Amino acid sequence: MIARLKETIGSAIAQGNARQLRECFYKLKHLISEGTDLSSEDFDFFARLVEQQKFLDLGGGWYFIMVFQLDRDNLPFRQSEKISSAMSTAYDAAEEIPLEMLVDAIEQAIESGQEMQMQECASAISFATSRFSYFPSEYFELIVRNLQKENFLKSNESWHLLHTFDSGNWYTISDQQKDKLLLLLETAYPAFSDWMSCFFISELLGSRYANEGAFEVFCRLKKIEAEMPRSFVPHGFEHIVTDSSDRQLQQRAHTELLQMKNDPSEEVRGEVKTSLQRIANRKKREMAELDDRIKSEGD
User: Fold this and answer.
1) What pTM, to 2 d.p., does this model score?
2) How many CB atoms lie within 10 A of CB 197?
3) Alpha carbon distance, N-terminus to C-terminus of the chain
4) Are 214 and 206 spatial neighbours (Cβ–Cβ below 8 Å)?
5) What confidence score (pLDDT) does residue 53 get?
6) Residues of the chain with pLDDT under 50
7) Beta carbons of 223 and 192 less than 8 angstroms apart
8) Distance CA 52, CA 14 (A)
9) What are phi and psi of 109, to 5 degrees?
10) pLDDT for residue 285
11) Rounded to whole angstroms, what are the CA distances from 168 to 44, 139, 147, 223, 265?
């Protein structure tokens, strides 16, 4: 299987076929995760790939990292040394992945329905943006454009791309970008098929924004017809209650949460009950911690 894969990789490089090359590395990662061992000859083959500029131009640095960013402690010294050297070159190349290549990779991930592919796309964007103290507009637009695409909203792995905004990148996003993102997330929210996307958005708005704008979005979203996305609105209100620094906003969010106890959906009512219980438990812990501090100061 590995021998045939190596042949296909060589063919993809010769033809300049980035999508086929990427597919080969997805398969390679899957095979390794399933327990397939690589021979010393295999390691040499893959390490030598990063010496080819054409391989790197096709996104090879990203694909190499995708597969070989692994625990090398158990590898023989020679293999570990060779992979480490190749990894340095791959990292440099992965910082300059062409945007059109990422666009194609995201489309490929949606078409395949393979969660791992979308996860790797998100990782590539996070890596490419990590060297900046701001969130580059071209990468921001690359992500938010998908919020207006039906095939993305209907995919079951969409949340990985959204998570890029929260995986160490939140504080690099400008206020203007956050305002645009809030508007697009509200518009897209009812159309998501992936429950993890709705859950993540409720967390992002409730804990990261945790402001008047996010509160108003939840007030509108609690009225949408679709049960699944509506069932995560209580979680959003819960985060505003626990994470907002605005006491009045906390109280208003708590009131909205209480009103959702009358939602016609049993699933939504169950989420409301769970959120109210978590809020109550948190208050009990905070009171207990306060009592402990007062006692320790008295002693």
Assistant:
1) 0.88
2) 28
3) 70
4) yes
5) 95
6) none
7) no
8) 11
9) -65, -40
10) 86
11) 34, 15, 21, 32, 35
Q: Residue 75's pLDDT is what?
A: 65
pLDDT at res. 97:
87
Residue type, 267: E
pLDDT the model gives residue 79: 73
Per the structure block, which two tokens stand in for 130?
A: 């990590």
Distances (CA, A) of 297 to 283, 287, 288: 21, 15, 14
Q: Environment class of residue 149 by beta-carbon count within 10 Å: exposed (0-12), middle (13-18) or buried (19+)?
A: middle
Q: Using CA atoms, how far apart are residues 143 and 125, in angstroms rounded to an integer?
A: 9
Q: How far is CA 289 from CA 170, 276, 280, 293, in A?
A: 30, 20, 14, 6
Which letter does DSSP use for residue 263 in this model?
-
Residue among 156, 229, 216, 222 at smallest CA distance from 188: 229
Q: Smallest Cα–Cα separation from 121: which of 138, 109, 134, 139?
A: 109
**What is the DSSP annotation of 197-241?**
HHHHHHHIIIIII-SHHHHHHHHHHTT-S-HHHHTTHHHHHHHHH
